[in-house]
Amino acid sequence: NAGVTQTPKFQVLKTGQSMTLQCAQDMNHEYMSWYRQDPGMGLRLIHYSVGAGITDQGEVPNGYNVSRSTTEDFPLRLLSAAPSQTSVYFCASTQTTTGPGYTFGSGTRLTVV
Amino acid sequence: QKEVEQDPGPLSVPEGAIVSLNCTYSNSAFQYFMWYRQYSRKGPELLMYTYSSGNKEDGRFTAQVDKSSKYISLFIRDSQPSDSATYLCAMRAAGNNRKLIWGLGTSLAVNP
Description:
The structure holds 2 protein chains of 2 kinds. Chain A is mainly beta. In chain A, 0% of the residues lie in helices and 51% in strands. In chain A, the strands form 2 sheets. In chain A, strands 2, 4, 5, 6, 9, 10 and 11 form a 7-stranded mixed β-sheet that branches. In chain A, strands 1-3-8-7 form a 4-stranded antiparallel β-sheet, with no helix packed on it. Chain A is globular. The N and C termini of chain A lie far apart (34 Å). By secondary structure, chain B is mainly β. Helix content of chain B is 0%, strand content 57%. Chain B contains no helices and 11 strands. Chain B has strands at 4-6, 11-14, 19-25, 30-38, 45-51, 54-58, 61-66, 71-76, 85-93, 101-102, 106-111. In chain B, strands 2, 4, 5, 9, 10 and 11 form a 6-stranded mixed β-sheet that branches. In chain B, strands 1-3-8-7-6 form a 5-stranded antiparallel β-sheet, with no helix packed on it. Chain B is globular and about 45 Å long. The interface between A and B is medium-sized, with 24 and 20 residues.
């Protein structure tokens, strides 16, 4: 099925470990983004990309890196996990030439202990 | 003050009730107004979007935008238990900047 695929669905990390959250879309969307969702804080933009090779920071980028080598993939790297990064992470994409709605993945639940 | 304000609820209504969900905003440049529905442990899904002012209807759902008051609403008629979810409003300005500004979401429970 067409859409945004995120892996893994769940992950437990120890403080200081690194990992990559994967995101892939098969809709040829130019714009991709990573959000984290925390109770009482809503959805907060971490990083986004307007096309292959172009990325930019959102409102909470510290501790995270991204790259966009292809249109389809937009991985999010946690460099040195901290308990404050315990959250649910969503990848979302949209096409710049059609309606403004985003398509979201099903999320990755990350716990840092 | 946040750019977008949304009452988090929770809101609990009986099946068949009319539900009204609302957001206020402060940025007069916003032109696209969206409502997303998020079921527990799922990603948000786009429910409706409206460009500029006016109403838009889709089945039991109606979205309204009042730009003069900087106020948007989502009405759900004949609410069903399957409508139980968190509803998030989101909005952005026109142009190539695709970044959305989100409300915190309103939790809705429709009781059979």
